Amino acid sequence: MRITCLASCVLNQWALDFEGNVKRVKASIQQAKQKGARYRLGPELELPGYGCEDHFLELDTTEHSWESLVELLNGDETDDIVCDVGMPVIHGGVRYNCRVFVLNRKILFIRPKLCLANDGNYRESRWFTAWQHPKKVEHHQLPLTVAAAIGQSRVPFGDAILTFIDASMGSETCEELFTPAAPHIQMALNGVEVISNGSGSHHQLRKLNTRTDLIRAATAKCGGIYMYANQRGCDGGRLYYDGCACIAVNGEIVAQGEQFAIQEVEVVTANVDLDAVVGFRGAFQSMAVQASASDKYPTIHVPFTLCPTDYVSQVPHPPCEIRYHLPQEEIALGPACWLWDYLRRSGASGYLLPLSGGADSSSTAAIVGSMCQLATAAAISGDDVAAADVRRIAQIEGNGSLPSAKELARLLFQTVYLGSENSSAATRSRSSALAAEIGASHLDVRIDAVVAAVIAFFTSVTQNTPKFKVDGGSDVENLALQNIQARIRMVLSFVLAQLMPWVRGRGGFLLVLGSANVDEGLRGYMTKYDCSSADINPIGGISKGDLRSFLRWGADKLGYPTLALVEEAPPTAELEPIRNDYVQTDEDDMGMTYEELGVFGRLRKISRLGPVEMFKRLLHEWKHRASPEEIAAKVKSFFYYYSCNRHKMTTLTPSYHAENYSPEDNRFDLRPFLYNVRWPFQFRKIDQLAGAAD
User: Fold this and answer.
1) Distances in Å between the alpha carbon of 528 and those of 373, 490, 534?
2) Strand, coil or helix: 46
3) From CA 690, how far away is CA 628, in angstroms rounded?
4) 265 and 309 Cβ atoms separated by less than 8 Å
5) Annotated catalytic, 113?
6) Which residues pair with 247 in a beta bridge?
7) Among 46, 22, 38, which residue's Cα sits nearest to residue 98?
8) What are phi and psi of 299, to 5 degrees?
């Protein structure tokens, strides 16, 4: 038997935080060594942080990465353990996204990424170039300062495998796992036993099973040991990297880490039997035929044993059951961890949320409550970093006792009900009750005096007084009066966020939370610069349907029973007067249901359908629920409002990315914001098709 202990790491890195990043890398190596590991795998671009974006274009970022690596090599961390570290490297005047293998304070090999991620949220080819020479190795001249510091001048650079005295190892990086001709296939045919993947993969609802299926499949056919490492947390942008390091053997997961956690460093280890790989492949004769004919990789020979001679005391890890979270749990945990990272790294002293008592703001409040539960649980369990962050943000002096989740919420979470004459007693009651269950400091205020002052100003300027539609006003007047209330709420929220810490005798400032969901953003069902305009928004990438499911789940699992009452109430903005024969609701206002919006959003983004093709698809899928004319009207209405409101996406509050049909304009969904909203050619064709379908 050849048994070795392998370590796959999850690190909560922060873009450009070289000092903190190196500290976490060192901690992970130390933990790996304590667990007996002979090889340690880290996340993609872990030294500078994956999310540096255009900072990768700055020479400073590459230089500081080398300086960080030198600091690592000058210590004893890499003694007697192979370490696989992610960083940018400039070779031959070209910048590459690389894995750097080090051992005993020396660099063994630099492996550049072959396939870059360039879809969805990823723009790697903007900063890096894919290595264009598969199965070829060149010499890389180290920077003079690095060469002087570690006593090496040249190292191998390219696409190769490492051969140890008793084992072989290959590497691929993140996106390469997802490609049709993934490198691990050729590595397996070359007899490579251990294949590692240092990744920078973000969370998306219901995505983890796709990733784990690919990891299992990587060795299910060809055999082998597959290691996956990932970043965790918010490293400076909209994405939350969701960890979940794992190790697979011959298609079975034998070790899996946490997907969501406050913990900054997690090391997942497994004892694996390399001979089990040989036995698996030996029973697969057709693979042997392909292997004998495959082109061979260049090899980097390393005089080091991965497998200790005392294998009797080491027992291989058996397969384990893969842990998946329910979507409701993902909503409770992912955005909560993202909010905690944002809060502790921003220097703010807490959050302020306009809490209307509706589904969206209540979901946001519950996520903040979940954040407080996670942070206090980590701190109380002995996580020194979490404990220090809790005390600093809560402004607890010295080694004062750690607060409970509700006590922490009282210290850092301010909610405010910004009611008006159009607000109902039911939403006011739900807002107050939910704040109390979470532990938030709560204000219940009326904004009517400020609204009246704005209307009075307009009247003094124009000698005209707008009216609501229910009082005889026009559509223009009705919308303007709603927008006045919405925008005043935004202004007052920022005033309170800046001054409430001062009022309460505390230092710092509060970050304002937005609470518009992905479907409202898609249609533009929001006022530009209203309460959807905030510092950050934890639910901006989550659909209304998922949020309602989360509310039902959270009422029980998070301990906030008011969420069930919120979910039962029809969604309403409460911006129009309530009458005996009229109560404003979102779906009546929009002319479509949230369920229909979700369908339109997925067809538009995921299926990449324009107006005509979307109509054709729905003509079949909705044939039992609506006539061709009704379907045509729905599709045209969606594209009309989507296009005329697209400009709102240019000012959308930075939101947690959770859904793959998000309309977020910053990087994920790149579209014009000035459309011909009549869509004359497309709508005419839809009408023709609808007529023919009858």
Assistant:
1) 33, 10, 11
2) coil
3) 5
4) no
5) yes
6) 227, 255
7) 46
8) -120, 145
Alpha-carbon distances of 669 from 124, 210, 331, 400, rounded to whole Å: 16, 22, 22, 47
CA–CA distance, 146 with 65 (Å, rounded to integer): 11
Pairing of strands 246-249, 225-233: antiparallel
What number is the average pLDDT over the span 256-261?
Answer: 97
* pLDDT value of position 311: 64
Q: What average pLDDT does range 109-117 have in this prediction?
A: 97
CA atoms of 576 and 453, how far apart (whole Å) = 18
pLDDT digits (tens, 9 = 90+) for 384-433: 999 999 999 999 998 889 999 999 999 999 999 999 999 999 999 999 99
**For 44, phi and psi rounded to 5 degrees?**
-65, 135
How many of the other CB atoms lie within 10 Å of CB of 306?
Answer: 25
Residue 589 buriedness (CB in 10 A; 0-12 / 13-18 / 19+): middle
Span 238-242, average pLDDT = 96
Burial, 580: exposed, middle or buried (Cβ in 10 Å; 0-12, 13-18, 19+)? exposed
User: DSSP secondary structure string, 355-407?
Assistant: --SSHHHHHHHHHHHHHHHHHHHHHHTT-HHHHHHHHHHHT--TTPPPPPHHH
Q: What's the CA gap between 80 and 33, in Å, rounded?
A: 9
**Which of 33, 113, 605, 636 does the annotation list as catalytic?**
113
Catalytic residue among 68, 199, 201, 356: 356
Q: What is the pLDDT of residue 577?
A: 84
Mean pLDDT confidence for 440-448: 97
634 as an active site residue: the answer is no
| Three-state DSSP state, 228 | strand
CA-CA-CA-CA torsion sign (134, 135, 139, 145): positive
Where do we find the tokens 């942070």? Answer: 375
What integer pLDDT is reported at residue 90 of this predicted model?
A: 98
The tokens for 281 are: 């492949």
| Residues 302-357: tens digit of each pLDDT | 999 999 877 667 899 999 999 999 999 999 999 999 999 999 999 999 999 999 99
Asked if the model's pLDDT at residue 661 lies above 90, the reply is: no
Alpha-carbon dihedral of residues 91, 94, 96, 100, nearest 10 degrees? 10
* Mean residue pLDDT across the chain: 94
b/e string for 255-294 if b means 16 or more Cβ within 10 A? bbbbbbbbbbbbbbbbbbbbebbeebbeeeeebeeebeee
Q: SS3 for 680?
A: helix
Q: Which of 5, 9, 174, 372 is catalytic?
A: 174
Does the pLDDT at position 667 exceed 80?
A: no
Inter-residue contact 380 to 402 (CB < 8 Å) = yes
Q: Over range 235-243, report the average pLDDT.
A: 95
| Order of all β-strands in the sheet with 510-512 | 441-446, 413-419, 350-354, 510-512
Convert the pLDDT of each residue in 510-545 to its tens digit. Answer: 999 999 889 888 888 888 888 778 999 999 999 999
CA–CA separation, 112 vs 297, rounded Å? 15
Q: Is 294 annotated as catalytic?
A: no
Instruction: Write the pLDDT tens digit of every residue in 267-314.
Output: 999 999 999 999 999 998 889 999 999 999 999 999 999 998 776 678
DSSP 1-42: --EEEEEEEEE---TT-HHHHHHHHHHHHHHHHHTT-SEEE-
649 token code pair: 């996406």
307 has catalytic annotation:
no
Residues 117, 176: Cα–Cα separation, whole Å: 9
Residues linked to residue 252 through DSSP beta bridges, in sequence order? 249
Q: What percent of the chain has pLDDT over 70?
A: 100
Measured between alpha carbons, how far is 416 from 355 in angstroms, rounded to an integer? 6
